[in-house]
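Possible regression after last week's pipeline update?

I re-ran a chain I had predicted before the update to compare outputs. Posting the input and the new output here so someone can diff against the archived version. Not blocking, just want to make sure nothing changed silently.
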Amino acid sequence: MIIVDVDPGVCGLSSKIKVHSNDMQHATVEIESSCPDIQAMAEELVELDGYSEAFNKVGSSPVYELARKHCKHAACPVPMAIVKGVEAAIGAALPKDVSVKIVKVD
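New output (post-update):
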């Protein structure tokens, strides 16, 4: 199992994503989130073809289709985190942290 914790930044609506794969292709996703948009997404997001997620163009996968349907914030990092978790669960990527640092310089 892969667990991805997401601290989305200023909104403070954190998410925990759990991804399981028994066959290294299909992934089962469970999401706990304090964000109502992500919770709505999670209700529809149950099993995925990991290869469709990992090797599709940005915005073309089922995760991003559900994000377009439910998520009101274009910069939400949760859809990307779901895809990264699926990649790791199916063995298409190593489980490695991803980081974005935002600094305002005057």
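Follow-up from reviewer: compared with the archived run. Helices lie at 36-44, 50-54, 62-70, 78-90. Marking as no regression found.
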